[in-house]
């Protein structure tokens, strides 16, 4: 029982990410609870200051959405931009999961992965979803040319 509680606690903690809500549009009406919608959120790269990613994703409404137990669709769209001077917090791995957003109560997450192409001084961001049993090949990608060398680990 303790192992199950620890697993569930870690699953919930990894879903925490600093994402700022930009706005949303309703996609279908629900009689009870909030409507189904597409939300747009901004996520700053935690290690490369000056890059912000904008993520559009489905959010399920209804009663299950209102209480936080709905399973969201795996479709997402991504656009990342250089919004200011680029600074690094230190040498970076060539690939790193920088954000995880909960898409169901326990077992489904939407990932935001940063990949670095040092030969072209480009940072690539990829979003995809995973599930405990079966993930989804649906994904979205965005590339940000930096024009400055990137320090790798």
UniProtKB/TrEMBL annotation:
<dbReference type="InterPro" id="IPR010292">
    <property type="entry name" value="Uncharacterised_CreA"/>
</dbReference>
<keyword id="KW-0732">Signal</keyword>
<protein>
    <submittedName>
        <fullName>CreA family protein</fullName>
    </submittedName>
</protein>
<dbReference type="GO" id="GO:0005829">
    <property type="term" value="C:cytosol"/>
</dbReference>
<feature type="signal peptide">
    <location>
        <begin position="1"/>
        <end position="19"/>
    </location>
</feature>
<dbReference type="Pfam" id="PF05981">
    <property type="entry name" value="CreA"/>
</dbReference>
């Amino acid at each position: 029982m303790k192992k199950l509680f620890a697993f569930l606690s870690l699953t919930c903690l990894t879903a925490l990410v600093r994402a700022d809500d930009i706005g949303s549009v309703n996609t279908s009406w629900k009689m009870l609870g909030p409507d189904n919608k597409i939300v747009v959120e901004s996520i700053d790269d935690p290690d490369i200051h000056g890059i912000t990613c904008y993520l559009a994703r489905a959010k399920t409404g209804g009663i299950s959405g209102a209480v936080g137990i709905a399973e969201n669709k795996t479709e997402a769209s991504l656009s990342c931009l250089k919004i200011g001077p680029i600074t690094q917090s230190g040498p970076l791995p060539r690939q790193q999961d920088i954000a995880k957003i909960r898409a169901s109560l326990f077992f489904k997450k939407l990932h935001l992965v940063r990949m670095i192409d040092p030969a072209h001084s480009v940072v690539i961001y990829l979003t995809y979803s995973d599930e405990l049993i079966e993930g989804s090949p649906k994904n979205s990608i965005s590339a940000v040319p930096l024009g400055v060398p990137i320090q790798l680990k």
